[in-house]
């Protein structure tokens, strides 16, 4: 190990992938099958049997020996293999799948197994490059499971500060949510899992990379009698017992039942018959729901696991299942196991740390962006004890606040002088369950209660925890309250009752969250900021109701932080004004005629800012939410190293335009980081890869006190957190050293959010945009509730 802090990405170069070491077989559709799948082909018709993609996924879930399916025109005409496998699926079984699929889509047909013949193919003579995204993960998942390399369960002992061996867990193939992987047998209500994906990288034309994604699957072990949501389907992972290689776990969909006597039912009527073909005895869903733990033994006749999903299962179940996350050593063990099974694959070189500015303690811990309000009145709709707790905490934070009068405090902050006044509103009556039959009446009552008090700018509101409404979620008043206060000119933060752990900490954080929405940050916001530069942050919001989505913008020039939204009246506003003004959020949501193609909209906004200022403009694009709305953020469009701009006017201004793309979540490789003498560490840092991509690694939250060697197996009820890794890609022309300075600034901005002791996932300007999304969600939720009402709110 070197004397440096290093970052190791869970990524391998697979530009020249491993070749299957067993014979490979292909299946071409015979003429009789082609006629049924593509009946009008001889006459030039392009209409084919629908649902082939879902049929292909079904086959890949069931048969780990299947490398890929290809249903392009050539395969459907019987000219090239439609299925390629190391272990051919028996012809009669395959015919049954196709016949059943035809039946599901309402067509009568019978596929003749005698017409089907698998033939051995020469792997080197067939072009598999387009299919590498499927066949390579499929091949790796099967080989990984069949290697019989077990996962070693390790428990952490606090007394000795060491890990001790507890046992071994076997791996099984799984194909879930379109991804190939392996999962262990269940252990105390959860499984370790690892998934594989083939990815491209923006600065690496012609090369492909394999990413390793460790996961924890959590299972519901208590009886399921109520508390399911109709908004999302649930999943049952079932181990099927057929003779083809290592037995896979197969995901089967369930949904909330329309019948009172049962909580859930199979989503499709054909599922029981489908399962019974593979299982040694029938699986009764009602029995599984009544006693889930009985089915969690992988050696049992049937192993069926209710995969926990916090959207499908109400918050009641959240307290009954294992918490998320895994230990640093467990995550690295999955990576090391993969390397043992595939020693021929070379991981990417470790990333070296980039020097960042050392932050010294400032005279002022906070900074305030310019605003029209210098005195903020915050109404506190809480109990006496909660209000007193808030006052005591504020008065104890003497570095942050100077008391001027009872419940009046001056912020110790750089920037415009700002005073906060708290007003207690006990028993205000504003919090009330939503009348689900007449929600507009509830909103009227809420607004009537709010306007009984003198004008305020914001509100802290105490409500019951979400689980209170698990049986009747539409009665939950949170969204209605947020809308009612916004329409009365106030922004909000909510508190739950004081039975929760760390409640005093939550009271303080709710207050700090509200201050953040008013433009108060830590001093990291202005640390080293280039005041000659304007920053534009671009993200998107795309809920189910808005298929075309909305682009959100934040603009920061070193003094003012302003936002706007696609579809609004075009004015830049502070966050509170954006939420409460009619021309801001509300107009943006109600605007008709918008499209999913966002390039003209985004380029128009960039050009507008360039025309308004002579200063350089740095645009930061949030890749994940923009991926399906704004194609230039995708890797495949960045192969030539520059950003795609279609407006000629932007080409003329290109010398003043700088572009960064930030990537979070699934697109970022997992990692481990080490230091001299430490195999595992929670240390943060900024790192640079060989291909010019930066990685910003956050710090562990101060509230997280578990040791670096702590494991999920030690106590599954502990939430295990790892610092978030954010990828930052400079694109196009930058002057020498300029890109690194901009990336350092973004790294610092991850620490500028007032509520958090350490880094947030996003830089503060984007984090606040994400905070605005909760108001967008609230307005949409209320629209859903009142859409059938004739009374205009």
Mean pLDDT across all amino acids: 89
Multimerization status: single chain
What structural class do you assign from the helix and strand content? alpha+beta
Overall geometric form: globular
Write a structural description.
- This protein has 793 residues and is an alpha+beta fold.
- The chain contains 20 helices and 35 strands.
- The model has no long low-confidence stretch (mean pLDDT 89).
Q: What is this entry, summarized?
A:
The chain has 793 residues and is an alpha+beta fold. The protein is 26% helix and 23% strand. The protein is globular, with a radius of gyration of 28 Å.
Can you tag this structure with a few keywords?
35 strands; eleven-stranded mixed β-sheet; 20 helices; 23% strand; six-stranded mixed β-sheet; alpha+beta; 793 residues
Secondary structure layout:
Layout (H helix, E strand, L loop, with lengths): L5 E4 L1 E3 L10 E4 L3 H7 L14 H11 L3 E4 L3 H4 L6 E3 L5 H14 L13 E4 L10 H15 L4 E7 L4 E8 L1 E6 L2 E6 L5 E10 L9 E10 L15 E6 L9 E8 L7 E3 L4 H6 L8 H6 L13 E4 L7 H4 L9 H14 L9 E4 L11 E3 L6 E7 L2 H13 L4 E5 L2 E4 L1 E2 L4 E6 L14 H12 L7 E5 L15 H10 L3 E5 L7 H15 L2 E3 L11 E8 L8 E7 L4 E5 L9 H6 L1 H9 L8 H14 L4 E6 H4 L21 H5 L4 E7 L7 E4 L10 E4 L5 E4 L27 E7 L6 H12 L14 H23 L7
Parallel strand pairs: 18-22, 19-23, 19-24, 24-25, 27-30, 30-31
Antiparallel strand pairs: 1-17, 1-32, 2-12, 3-5, 3-6, 4-5, 7-8, 9-10, 10-11, 11-12, 13-14, 13-16, 14-15, 17-33, 18-26, 20-21, 21-23, 27-28, 28-29, 31-35, 33-34, 34-35
């Amino acid at each position: 190990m070197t004397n440096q802090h290093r970052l190791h990405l869970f990524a391998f170069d697979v530009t020249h992938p491993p070749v299957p070491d067993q014979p490979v077989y292909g299946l071409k559709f015979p003429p009789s099958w082609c006629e049924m799948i593509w009946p009008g082909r001889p006459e030039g018709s392009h209409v084919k049997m629908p649902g082939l993609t879902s049929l292909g996924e079904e086959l890949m879930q069931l048969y780990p020996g299947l490398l890929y399916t290809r249903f392009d025109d050539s395969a459907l005409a019987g000219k090239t293999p439609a299925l390629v496998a190391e272990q051919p699926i028996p012809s009669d079984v395959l015919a049954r799948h196709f016949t059943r699929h035809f039946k599901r889509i309402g067509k009568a047909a019978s596929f003749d197994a005698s017409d089907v013949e698998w033939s051995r193919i020469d792997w080197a003579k067939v072009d598999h490059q387009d299919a590498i995204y499927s066949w390579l993960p499929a091949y790796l998942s099967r080989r990984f499971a069949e290697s019989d390399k077990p996962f070693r369960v390790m428990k952490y002992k606090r007394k000795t500060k060491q890990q001790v061996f507890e046992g071994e867990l076997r791996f099984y193939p799984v194909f879930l949510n379109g991804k190939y992987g392996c999962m262990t047998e269940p252990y105390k209500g959860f499984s370790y899992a690892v998934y594989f994906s083939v990815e491209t990288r923006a600065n690496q034309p012609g090369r492909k990379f394999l990413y390793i994604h460790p996961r924890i699957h959590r299972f519901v072990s208590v009886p399921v009698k109520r508390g399911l949501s109709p908004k999302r389907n649930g999943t049952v992972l079932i181990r099927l017992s057929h003779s083809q290689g290592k037995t896979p776990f197969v995901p089967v969909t369930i949904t909330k039942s329309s019948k009172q006597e049962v909580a859930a039912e199979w989503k499709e009527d054909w599922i029981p018959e489908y399962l019974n073909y593979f299982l040694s005895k029938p699986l009764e869903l009602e029995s599984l729901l009544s006693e889930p733990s009985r089915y969690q033994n992988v050696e049992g006749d049937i192993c069926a696991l209710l995969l926990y999903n916090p959207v499908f299962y109400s918050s009641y179940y959240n307290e009954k299942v294992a918490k998320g996350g895994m230990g640093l050593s467990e995550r690295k063990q999955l990576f090391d196991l993969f390397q043992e099974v595939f020693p021929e694959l070379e991981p990417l070189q470790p990333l070296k740390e980039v020097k960042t500015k050392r932050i010294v303690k400032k005279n002022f811990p906070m900074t305030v962006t310019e605003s029209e309000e210098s005195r903020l009145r915050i109404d506190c709709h809480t109990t006496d004890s909660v209000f007193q707790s808030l006052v005591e905490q504020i008065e104890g934070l003497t570095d942050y606040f100077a008391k001027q009068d009872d419940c009046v405090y001056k912020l110790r902050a750089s920037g415009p002088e700002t005073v906060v006044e708290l007003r207690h509103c006990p028993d205000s009556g504003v919090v009330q369950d939503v009348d689900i039959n007449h929600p507009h009446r509830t909103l009227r009552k809420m607004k009537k209660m709010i306007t009984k008090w003198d004008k305020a700018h914001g509100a802290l509101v105490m409500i019951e925890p979400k689980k209170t409404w698990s049986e009747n979620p539409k009665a939950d008043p949170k969204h209605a309250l947020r809308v009612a206060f916004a329409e009365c000119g106030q922004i909000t933060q909510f508190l739950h009752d004081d039975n929760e752990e760390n409640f005093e900490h939550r009271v303080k954080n709710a207050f700090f969250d509200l201050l953040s929405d008013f433009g108060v940050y830590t001093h990291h916001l202005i640390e080293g900021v280039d005041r000659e530069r304007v920053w534009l942050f671009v993200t998107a919001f795309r809920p189910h109701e808005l298929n075309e989505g909305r682009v959100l913008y934040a603009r920061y020039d070193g003094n003012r932080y302003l936002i706007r939204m696609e579809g609004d009246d075009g004015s830049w506003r502070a966050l509170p004004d954006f939420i409460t003004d009619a021309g801001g959020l509300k107009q943006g949501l109600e605007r008709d005629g918008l499209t999913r193609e966002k390039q003209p909209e985004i380029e128009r906004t960039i050009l507008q800012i360039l025309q308004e200022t002579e200063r350089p403009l740095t645009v930061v694009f949030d890749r994940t939410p923009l991926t399906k709305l704004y194609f230039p953020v995708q890797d495949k469009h960045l192969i030539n190293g520059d950003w795609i701009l279609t407006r000629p006017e932007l080409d003329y201004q290109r010398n003043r335009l700088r572009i960064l793309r930030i990537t979070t979540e699934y697109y970022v490789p997992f990692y481990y980081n080490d230091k001299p003498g430490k195999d595992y560490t929670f240390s943060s840092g900024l790192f640079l890869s060989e291909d010019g991509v930066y990685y910003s690694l956050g710090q562990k939250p101060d509230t997280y006190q578990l040791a670096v060697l702590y494991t999920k197996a030690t106590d599954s009820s502990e939430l295990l957190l790892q610092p978030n890794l954010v990828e930052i890609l400079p694109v196009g022309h930058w002057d020498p050293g300029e890109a690194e300075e901009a990336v350092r600034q973004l790294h610092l901005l991850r620490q500028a959010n007032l509520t958090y002791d350490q880094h947030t996932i996003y830089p503060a300007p984007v984090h606040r945009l994400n905070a605005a999304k909760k108001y967008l969600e609230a307005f949409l939720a209320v629209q859903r509730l009142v859409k059938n009402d004739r009374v205009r709110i």
